[in-house]
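Two quick folds needed for the group meeting slides. Do the first one here.
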Amino acid sequence: MRRPLALLATVALVPLGLAGCGEATVDADKIESEIRTGFESQVPGAKVASIDCDEDIPGTKGSRGACRMTRDGDVRLLVSVTVTSEEDDGRIRWQVTSANIPGSSLEQRAADALERQVGSAPDLVSCPDRVDLKAGATVRCDVTVDAQTYGATVTFTDADGAFDIKVDDRPRT
């Protein structure tokens, strides 16, 4: 069962303007606004719930910063930011470098997928606390049905975090 969760590689070059007197900086609030706008325009239907860039970035070409973003309520993304121009426009490049979801979110999504596959929901799905989203990555979860616990392999199938789930044929002993 394929389920889209997150886009893992979004890049943009945007002019922001350099702030302040003295050493020029690129303002964290402006970076947050540009990433939010750019991400939502590049990922149809995506909604950025929150974004936090801890501090302004020095306006020197090559300066780097990082932001943390949450989309659609539960997908957590790390965004790298690089200053690409020292001119007055303070251009930056941003890219989503990693994404993860809480295990509880994957548990619910896996339970929903299994219910669609077999017609009834499992009694319980248990996955690791935090799950990194990478194409080809796998994670093992436990699926309990009628007091029997089965292992299940969740395999992320693409860079958007879609997944397939395969429940073991036999319960654990």
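Then this one, please, same format:
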Amino acid sequence: MNPGIDSIGMNVNSIPTKKVGSSVESKQNFANVLKGAVDSLNKIQIESDKKTEALASGNIDDLHDVMITAQKASITLETTVQIQKKVIDAYNEIMRMQV
């Protein structure tokens, strides 16, 4: 036997492995991430609405700040919609796979 080749098997066995979390744990983590993203989107939308109302009522004179907040809310919403579409497309692709 070749000692160089035999040592390869020993190196493979010494590689540490990482245990993957349970599926329930993964589902909860995904749900928490998703909920956090939706909550963040909601906060940004509410902040934009409040600043727009304050500008319309004359309580705020800084149009620049209101426009930045409105654009931030718009971009965040558009990004969320695009992510939703990609997730649905990926789900549909998985469902079309033959097992």
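Slide caption for protein two: The longest helix spans residues 23-57.
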